[in-house]
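Project channel, design review

CF: Before we commit to the Aneurinibacillus aneurinilyticus ATCC 12856 constructs, I'd like one complete example in the thread so the newer folks can see what an input/output pair looks like. Taking Lipoprotein.
RD: sounds good, go ahead.
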Amino acid sequence: MKYIGLILFFFMLVGCSEQQSLGTIKAYNGEVIREDPTDTIVMEDKEYPMRGEVGDFTVFDADFIAGKEQTHTFYIWFGNKNINKQLLQQDEIVEWNESASDEKQKALGKQINFTAIESETFEKQNIGTGIIEPLSEEKENFPLETTAAKVVTTISIPSQGVWKIEGSIDGQSIGDVTVKVN
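CF: and here is what came back for Lipoprotein:
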């Protein structure tokens, strides 16, 4: 009799875990929205944790608090973001930097729109705007600094959860970063 009780208990445990693991994973445009890992920028022997991918689109790793207006600094690197910069030859790096620098120069002073997409419901909201600015005091030792720019903006994300923040200029995406909102 006690074996029957153990067997039933075992089946209940297995049944519960199967229900959890068999749940549907929703995707937004074919992508599951999960919090981005942190990356790090090292300048003047000090580390700065960032959310997103350095060399693409990042934001300082900070607390995002639901419903509260907060100022954040986003960093954008221009140029072909699908290129493996480590595999480029020296003359290709110079050419890539020149075209990326030109792209950056054209973007400076333009308005960037920030949209947030919630990971469970895919609720999409405009959360703020900002102006693309050149780097200033960060410039020294900043990775790929000739291709990088920043946007300092005040945004408010409406609720807790994992949110994907997309930046766009004139309706064209220039990057995204996914953060956890408390």
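RD: helpful, thanks. The CA atoms of residues 97 and 108 lie 16 Å apart.
CF: The first strand starts at residue 38 and ends at 43.
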